[in-house]
Structure formats: structure tokens, C-alpha cells
Amino acid sequence: MSEHPQRASFLANQRWFAGKGRDFEITDVRVLAALSETVRIELVDVAYAEGTPATETYQMPVSHYPGPQERLGHALVREGDGEWTYDAVHDRDAMAVYLEVFDTGEDLDGLAVHRLAGHDLDTSTHSTVFGGEQSNSSVAFGEDSLMKVFRKLTTGTNPDVEIHEALTRAGNTHVASLYGYLSAEDEQLQLAMLQQFLRTASDGWVLALTSARNLYLEADLHPHEVGGDFAAEAHRLGATIAEIHQVLAGTFGTTTIDPAAIGQQMSDRFRAATSVVPDLSAYEDAVQSRFAALAEVPSGTPGLVAHRIHGDLHLGQTLRTSLGWKLVDFEGEPAKPLAERRLPDSPWRDVAGMVRSLDYAAASTAADLEATEHGYDQIGYRAHEWVEHNVAALLDGYTEQRGVPITGVEQTLLDAYVADKAVYEAAYEARNRPGWLPIPLAALDRLAKQPR
Ligand SMILES: Nc1ncnc2c1ncn2[C@@H]1O[C@H](COP(=O)(O)OP(=O)(O)O)[C@@H](O)[C@H]1O
Ligand SMILES: [Mg+2]
After folding, report:
1. 90-94 contact pairs (CB < 8 A, 24+)
2. What CA–CA distance (Å, rounded) separates 33 from 18?
3. At residue 378, does pLDDT exceed 80?
4. Residues contacting residue 230 through CB under 8 Å, at least 6 positions apart
5. Does 103 have pLDDT greater than 50?
């Protein structure tokens, strides 16, 4: 029992801990498997004082030593009874043990080790843990491979592993190849995956921000005239998404969505969001008419196809390498239960995610500059121009790749998903980042002013 207060305060400070700001206690810590004398995988159950979810389970790979390790001071999980326990992802020696386990490919007590053919691991590399806002922990092994340790665990198939495996086996070049993964409890818990390290990768979000900023600083030019125009990239990104959708449809199969039911859910979500953000009511007619349009779509229309999708697509889940765009992080919408995230869904939800992300890139850059020397109206206008230009390119890339122009029904779906996403963002920002609330509200305002 005595270890729990230390571990709880460690947990509360981790980026990947989803319960920040909530009262919780650790109800159980158990060892799932030992990888060596020093390194083991622990599962930590957390119970919250109130709210949902009421409980969560986190994975903590740890290394334990009979004395303090100065090099790991920042990663101390607990100490006591002559044992010092550290977060293993920060511990190079512990990460070398993980790499060895993958390289050997042999199961351990309590741990199943899966390897895919096609790549010999470079075991001479050193590990570096990634920083940044992440919901899991990623560790690079030189420039050879990257291990992602899933933090919040739920029983069942992890879609990130599942989709990377399927796309790797299909020879798709728009994801990092899967090299292997670790699982436990008869495959019911997937713990970590090892994949190709994407060299020369630039974050799509950062590239988009840079492009928008370049435009704002060139007062007299239009997006296509400015150095750093993003449209060719947006076009290629659209094509990449379409290609991945085709493979997902081919691999996991297709079904259809019920547009009226989806429109009803969106409408209900809008009503719930309005109680959090009363300003949303100004856009009620515009938003609700888009949702209501879904009920008019005749069933059996080809645009209603559903298949496995990315599920949480935005520019932060894209990397531009010298060999083209790659999509990462197929875990799906983190707030949804695992089983729901693996259901077929409309590909237009992914496209809408990217459309909203382009708007965020332009608007957040504009907000940064507004605080400095530039006039807001001018930049606001140009931000909008940048978004229209790049959304058009994204859609062109998407439809050209699949060889079919966007249909009226698909446009209706896309409009509804975009509006629904902006409503979700408004509720999210009001709760978490009130300074960003104007971004989705401005998008809904523009939508309300659009002729229909
Ligand atoms: N294969 C890879 N090679 C290099 N960098 C990667 C790779 N996969 C992901 N990344 C980087 O790591 C970050 C986190 O990865 P992601 O899978 O999105 O983890 P999380 O679930 O924690 O969000 C990404 O934003 C990306 O910048
Ligand atoms: Mg991510």
C-alpha cells in the first residue's frame, strides 16, 4: 500500500494519463510479465472519485534497481524496501532489453512476442523517448525502429496494431511498416508495437502552419503565388487518404451507414453541446439543416458505403517523408470504447477531420499573428482563403485517386461531418482551451452564412 501515493503522483504528472485534474486512487498494481531481472511490465488500476469512466487500467513498463539511478532521476516511479523503480521507457538499458525481446521473437512467461517478416532489427541502436503531447509513449531505436507503448489499456484488439498489420501485409507504403508487437492474456491485451522509423519525416501540422504563416506575411499575394504553397501537399495527402481507404475497404470489407440515424445522433450531440456552449444556438438552423439533410438521402446510394477508417484523422497524425505522406496512429477516437472504434464508418468522417484540421492550422496561426503587428480582418480573410484553397486541393486529390468525382450525397455527408466535428470542437474547447473556442465558432459562423 505504501507505494501507491508515490506512484499516484508520478501518474498524475504523465502526459499520457487521461485522468488529469480528477480525484483518483490506485486500487491495484500487478506484474503482468518480466522481461529480465530488472525490467517488468506492470498494470495499474485506477479508480476515480466521480465521473466516467469510473476506472481505468494503465500499462507501466518499469525497471527496478537495488539503488538509486542518477541518470533516471526524472523517471522515478517509487522507492522503498530497498528498491528503486523507474519508468522503463526513459531507461536505455531497459529499452535495449525490449529490443532484444523483439529481436529474439520468443514468447516469455505471460508475454506473447509477434514478429512480422521482412526487416532485421538493428540492435546496436540507442533508444530515445519522444516528447510532445502524446497519449502513449513512443521510443525510437536510432533511426531503425520505433516502439509505441500503449498506456491506457482496454481488453480487445487494438486497432493501431490491427490496421498497421493489415496495411503492412498488403504492402501499403503510406504507413510505417509493422515489425512486431507484444500482447498478453491470450491476445486480449495488446501492449506495444514496433514499427519502421520514418526517417526524414516532417509533421504535417507543422508544415501546414508554416505555409499559412508564409501567406500571412506576404500581404499582396494569393495562396498559390506564395513560396510554401501547401496545395500540392494537400492534394497528395488527399490521394494518400483515398488510397488507404481503398485498402481498408478491400481488407476489412464494407457495409453501409444509416444516414438518418447518423443525422439524429449529430442533432442530439448538437443539443447537448449547446448546453455547454450557449453561443452555439446562433448556428442552430444552419447546423441542424445539414443534419436533417441526411434523413433525405435515399438508402442504397453508393455514397453511403462504410468501412474501417482512421477514425481520428488530423494533420498531427500525418508525416511527410521524402517518399510521400504517411498516416500514423490508427487507434481511432480516444474517447470511444475500443469495440466501437473498430466498427465500419463513413470515409467522409476522416476527410472531415482533415478539413477541420486545415482550418485549425490556418486559424491558430492567424490568432498568433493577430496578437502581434497584423490587422485581424486582413489575416482572417487570408486564413479563410488558405483553407478554401487547400481543402479544394485535398478533395481533388482524394477524388482523383479513387477516380470518381464527389457526388451530391457525399457532399451532404461531408458537410454534416464537418459541422458535427466543429460542434464537438466547440464543446471540447469550452471545457479545455477556452482561448481556442473562437476557431470552431468562426467555422460554424461561415457555414451559417454559406448559401445552401
Ligand atoms: N513510424 C514513425 N516514425 C517516426 N515518427 C513517428 C512514427 N510514428 C509516429 N511518429 C511520431 O510520433 C508521434 C506520436 O505517434 P502517435 O502514433 O500519434 O502516438 P500517440 O498515440 O501517442 O498519439 C507522431 O505525431 C509522429 O510525429
Ligand atoms: Mg497521435
Report:
1. 90/129, 91/63, 92/126, 92/127, 93/38, 93/63, 94/38, 94/39, 94/61, 94/63
2. 24
3. no
4. 207, 208, 211, 212, 223, 386, 390, 393
5. yes
How do beta strands 202-203 and 254-256 pair?
Answer: unpaired
The neighbouring-strand residues paired with 321 are 324
Q: What is the mean pLDDT of the chain?
A: 94
- Measured in Å, residue 329 CA sits from the centre of ligand 2 at 5
Nearest Cα neighbor of 57 from 193, 162, 157, 151 is 151
DSSP code at position 108: B
Cβ contact 135:18 at 8 Å: yes
pLDDT at 1: 42
Q: Is the pTM of this model over 0.70?
A: yes
The environment of the single-atom ion ligand 2, i.e. residues with CB closer than 5 A, is: 329
Cβ neighbours for 403, distance < 8 A, ≥ 6 positions apart? none
> What integer is the mean pLDDT of 210-237?
86
Please report the DSSP string for 177-242 in residue order.
PEEEEEEETTTTEEEEEEEE--TT-EEHHHHHHHHHHHHHHSTT--GGGSTT--HHHHHHHHHHHH
Nine cell digits for residue 214: 508564409
| Amino acid 372: pLDDT | 55
> In the predicted model, is pLDDT for residue 3 greater than 60?
no
DSSP states along 170-194:
TT-SSSPPEEEEEEETTTTEEEEEE
Encoded amino acid at 361, one letter: A
Q: Which residues line ligand 1 (CB under 6 A)?
A: 130, 134-136, 138, 146, 148, 176, 195-198, 201, 203, 316-317, 319, 328-329, 331
